[in-house]
């Protein structure tokens, strides 16, 4: 009997990531990046619900930029995960359904009578990217919601709902508008009320709340120089939130601990492994046989990634405002270190 109990305990514990994370090896990697001007950013790692690693790197190269451990990064499209959470909270409250038609809110939009909230969430609506007009990004300077809305109408749809999956910024700005319409308040206020305050996120702010102590975007030439990024009030609900990596990890850990939405609701957000890469606000990130769920974000000069492995209870958040190593390459190495696997240091050109 005792042997059976021991075997059972081994089987159960084998489903959890038990080895220690090699913090020194992560430090060595980030030292390499920093010393070779390979990037500027921040990394946070949570294990079993607790932060076990947090480090910023490269900021000292930004002379004379002032920063603290609470200086925020723009998280770009990781914001979409937040918008999806808010939509699902409305679903839980019975104020919205996944099969609610877009025409219930905006009947004048193309295919609105066929496109559902679910289509908007999972990028199967056929809508496009409002931020690209005539082949170029046009949202560097402030524009109105009405101008954006007219651009969405003008672009129309490229396929019928459910025909295929195509990433759509237009879909998520419409979801943000639905959030505001249903909550009867601005997106920034909803984020504060439903996400930031309940989870005690002190450095998690939507653009119209005018976040302070936020990094600008940089690119590397002979040295690091500031570059103009998009106007974040043009991408509210799509890519406007600023945060620290610690607050990002708190968000995703609390999400997977069902502190924000119910377990069955979270399962609706997640992609079906083996069938979908995109879920309904969460995407699948596979590193060998390690499966993470979360979201990535990219604009002109800032990039972010927030992922969680529910099997091993590992959360990783990464944000950069000066990228020379592509985010996916950066994260692949970081995951390899965490799981004690071989990797090659990236070439920094």
Can you describe this structure?
With 349 residues, the chain is of the alpha+beta class. The protein has a single domain, classed as DD-peptidase/beta-lactamase superfamily (Beta-lactamase). The protein has helices spanning 2-13, 23-35, 78-92, 117-122, 145-155, 169-183, 187-196, 245-256, 263-269, 327-338, and strands at residues 39-47, 50-57, 73-74, 132-133, 136-137, 204-205, 217-220, 224-227, 242-243, 283-287, 290-298, 303-309, 314-323. The strands form 4 sheets. The protein has a 6-stranded antiparallel beta sheet, sandwiched between helices. Strands 3-9-6 form a 3-stranded antiparallel beta sheet. The protein has a two-stranded antiparallel sheet with strand order 4-5. 44% of the residues are buried. Mean pLDDT is 94; it is low at 1-15.
Helix/strand/pairing category: alpha+beta
Number of domains: 1
Give the CATH class: Alpha Beta
Order of helices and strands: HHEEEHHEEHHHEEEEHHEEEEH
> Helix count, per DSSP?
10
Overall residue-averaged pLDDT value:
94
Quickly give the CATH architecture. 3-Layer(aba) Sandwich
Strand order of the largest sheet: 2-1-13-12-11-10
Query: Which stretches are low in confidence, meaning pLDDT under 50 for 5 or more residues running?
Result: 1-15
| Distance between the first and last residues' Cα | 60 Å
Coarse morphology: globular
**Corresponding CATH superfamily:** DD-peptidase/beta-lactamase superfamily
Query: Rg, please?
Result: 21 Å
Q: What is the CATH T-level topology?
A: Beta-lactamase
Helix content: 25-40%
- Beta-strand percent range: 15-25%
Strands, total number: 13
Reported for the largest beta sheet, the result is: 6 strands, antiparallel
GO molecular function, one term: hydrolase activity
Organism: Flavobacterium kingsejongi
Protein name: Serine hydrolase
Keywords: Hydrolase, Signal
């Amino acid at each position: 009997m005792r042997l059976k109990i021991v075997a059972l305990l081994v089987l159960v514990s084998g489903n959890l990531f038990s080895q220690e994370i090699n913090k020194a090896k992560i430090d060595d990697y980030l030292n390499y990046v920093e010393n070779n001007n390979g990037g500027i950013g921040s990394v946070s790692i949570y294990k079993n619900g607790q932060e076990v690693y947090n480090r910023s790197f490269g900021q000292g190269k930004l002379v004379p930029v002032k920063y603290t451990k609470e200086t925020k990064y723009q998280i770009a499209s990781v914001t979409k995960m937040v918008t999806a959470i808010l939509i699902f909270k409305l679903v839980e409250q019975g104020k919205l359904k996944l099969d609610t038609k877009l025409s219930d809110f905006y009947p004048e939009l193309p295919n609105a009578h066929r496109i559902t909230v679910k289509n908007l969430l999972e990028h199967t609506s056929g809508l496009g990217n409002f931020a690209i007009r005539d082949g170029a990004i046009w949202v560097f300077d402030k524009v109105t919601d009405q101008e954006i809305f007219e651009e969405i109408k003008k672009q129309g749809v490229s396929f019928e709902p459910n025909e295929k999956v195509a990433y759509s910024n237009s879909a998520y700005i419409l979801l943000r508008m639905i959030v505001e319409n249903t909550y009867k308040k601005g997106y920034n206020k909803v984020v504060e009320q439903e996400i930031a305050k309940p989870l005690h996120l002190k450095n998690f702010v939507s653009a119209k709340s005018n976040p302070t102590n936020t990094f600008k975007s940089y690119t590397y030439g002979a040295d690091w120089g500031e570059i103009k990024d998009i106007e974040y009030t043009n991408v509210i609900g799509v890519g406007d939130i600023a945060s620290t990596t610690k607050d990002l990890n708190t968000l995703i850990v609390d999400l997977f601990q069902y502190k924000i939405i119910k377990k069955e609701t979270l399962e609706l957000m997640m992609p079906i492994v083996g069938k979908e890469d995109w879920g309904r606000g969460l995407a699948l990130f596979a590193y060998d046989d390690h499966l993470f769920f979360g979201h990535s974000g990219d604009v002109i000069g800032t990039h972010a990634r927030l992922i969680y492995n529910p099997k091993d209870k590992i959360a990783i958040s990464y944000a950069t405002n000066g990228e020379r190593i592509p985010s996916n390459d950066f994260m692949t190495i970081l995951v390899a270190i965490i799981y004690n696997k071989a990797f090659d240091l990236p070439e920094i050109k």
